[in-house]
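Section handout 9: paired folding examples.
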Amino acid sequence: MEPLSPIKSVSAFEIIKVGIGPSSSHTMGPWCAAERFIKFIKSRTDIQKVDEITTYLFGSLAKTGVGHGTDIAVIMGLSGEDYTQIDTDTIPQRIETIKRSNTLKLNREKDIPFEYHKHIVFDFDHSLDFHPNGMRFSAKLSDGETLEAEYFSIGGGFVVCENDEEINNNAIKTPYPCHSAAKILENCSKLNMRVSELVFLNEQAWRKPEDIRAQALYIWDEIKSCIFRGVNKTGTLPGGIGVRRRAAELSQRLLAGKTFTQTEDWMDAIKEGPRDFNTVNKWVSAFALAVNEENASFGRIITAPTNGASGVIPAVMMYAYCFTPDFNEDKIVDFILTAGEIGTLYKKGATISAAMGGCQAEIGVSSSMAAGALAEILGGTKEQVTQAAEIAMEHHLGMTCDPIRGLVQIPCIERNTMGAIKAITAANIALEEDSSGARISLDDVIKSMWETAQDMNSKYKETSEAGLANIPINIAEC
């Protein structure tokens, strides 16, 4: 089976972008699909003619849909809300109002009847052939006609149709296409450029140079804000399994009880504090926990490349800011561009969907992205950058996706701390190596990851049917 994503140029900012928790595949994707169905309706008829819409969720979307908030995402998408702008704290009340009134204002334009158990159907017994994350929208019109469309959430918030002209055509052409790690190395050698410089050049097919820089710095600002929110919230995460927020307590202990109201003051306090191995290790864990606790609470995060793995790159970037020399704006841009480009290789050559590839496609990919990016900003050669990315993925191969109750909590939150530490370790190993002696290339490990994904039993691919998901819920918190 070939990877689902066509071989076309993908912007780094399609891989690293603003998102909303808890899942890129099961929350962001269905939200985008609902928005896309609204556009489909408008292309065919007047939205005022819609009397009723039913959404059918298949496969993995059905089996872990409630835990991932797929139902909530569909409702919000059909309501015309934008997940990059909405005040996430208002979502629970909005959903409750819709359920209580049995009415949904379609695209903020027309009230239509909405009964939760009737108009969102979880089909646990069937999957659509194209991808495990399939959904179908069906709109009944006042003239008796029905409009239907099927969409597939293929990871990272990307949504496609099975025969999607929008995907297969209109591809952006970059001056130096990089659809493999080998091509990145070849183009860097040809142009005498570092990896980040090559990516910056290609990104100009989408944005002006100043806009590329601005977008990268905007993402860094969002990362800082997300981590700071996470280390300032306590309590129990939603979902009913009693997972307690830990980032705030960990931050408090490491700062000897000091509190801060400003993000930059908190970050400076970390920089000025101890730098022994155990302290640094604990801070990296705190950074990752903070992001993924926000993600589990329907918070706004940076999808990189997915939500379940959204804590890895922020944790490694905050590590670089606090514990490596001269982490300035230039390095921020270089880090994000390099990480994003490595992510595109997995999207094109394998998958970034846990429903297709297990958790190796999420934590493994994010760790690989972070490792290569860290090696880049620490002065690694192009070969060391790709070797760091290869090492990180090599030690995530075969990782299953087995969330308890379909919630992005156990084991997902802690896995981000592990992915971040592995990324830092992989970068350090690569930077001390003569990469000419490497026996496995990044392209080799991407190919192996895809083959492993295809061989993996489906019950280990984000279905909550095996592995840790079989453990009774009344166990002590992990």
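Moving on to protein 2 of 2.
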Amino acid sequence: MSFISEFKHKSVTKSDRIIQPDKLARKVADAAKDINLFGTDGIRGQVGQHLTPQLALQVGFCAGLELGKSFAPHQPFILGQDSRNSSDMLAMALSAGLTAAGLDVWYLGLCPTPTVAYLTHHTNAVGGVMVSASHNPPADNGIKFFQTDGTKLPPSVQSNIEKRIKASSPSPTSGAWGRHYYRPELAQAYTDAIQGPLQSQVSFQGLKVVLDLAWGAATQLAPKVFQALGAEVICLHDQPDGDRINVNCGSTHLGPLKAAVDLHDADVGFAFDGDADRVLAIDCQGRTVDGDYILYLWGKALQEQKQLPNDLIVATVMSNLGFELAWQQQGGTLIRADVGDQNVHAEMLNHGSMLGGEQSGHILCPHYGVSGDGLLTALHLATIICQNKTRLSCLVDDSFQTYPQILKNVRVEDSNRRRNWQECQPLQTLIEQATDDMGDQGRILVRASGTEPLIRVMVEARDMGMVNHWTDQLVGAVETHLA
């Protein structure tokens, strides 16, 4: 039985909040008329400037019209949020827009982004939306949409929503409004789904785990799931706190987790970002186990189980050469996609891959989930540790050695310069010189971030001195000619 049949006619309790706007806001921020709203991971920006409640209302309304055009009225739309102070405001504005478009909103409250993706798919909802800026600082926020199968919106659908937003602000038809229901209990179906397949395979008894929850979306679910499988769990930053989400903690600041793993003599530590769609690990020696190592270890496990078609993994242009060479020695093939989980997902579909991801810890495995899922990934890495009856450090020692790699971010506020950095001739000349100098012993990647006002400069080579030299040169050029 689908969730939609189970919950569609459930009576409304007193705790259910109802939003029935009789007039849609006519004025949207002028900036929305002149920019592309959707970046590499939905709509994201600083709240009060790029991202306003008026815009969120309009986005909800137009997305509801676009995604709901093939569905009957009052179909459900899944809505979740992280712990940012602005998330309540934006979530309610989105709900107002969606209900104005005639859809019923099932509001989960605080939850990881993958929870929204999972429930969107398994309730046959019209779509889903998560209010979060992922790993960004507290002042930022974002809006991520999912289509009915739980995957992120393709560019064509995003473009249609943008066209609706920029064209006009039509009022909803009177009497056709949807309703807003508070449905936090639905998240249990997600936790059952990610831990269920593992309960008959492995026990985490004897495994000591430290979880850095980044004051974010995983604070309520992650400890319970690990404890349910038998692990001893130590938590850091384990309360939802909109002022401190991602601040000096989580997957972008691993220092506190490294210290805690050492202090408690833990087997492994896991650091999530603010919406828990990615994860990085720390082994008992204090080493960072990033997405490349996770892909290698999980890929090897799936390979041994004959569950990895063509021994193929899809990674990105950021993935380390050491990982690529080691996977080839394992008999596998590695295909590189552009940065962004949507690009990874597209390449996985093109090549029939069942495992892919990013160095940042955003991992996709269609065997077990429809989206990148930090909690799911952490559970499977812990499963590999337990099944091998060893510590993560031993698995890392037996995997591969990374090439020295430095990634530096340069803040470039001018959006035109940032988008068109390839037109900067002094920088292009320097890139050519560096590429010729390193030959096949290294590589360079310069790109504009799709979610922040940054130019990212990555240099990788066998020799650390070469990496340091060319990183300094390239970062200096970006600072001089672009920033």
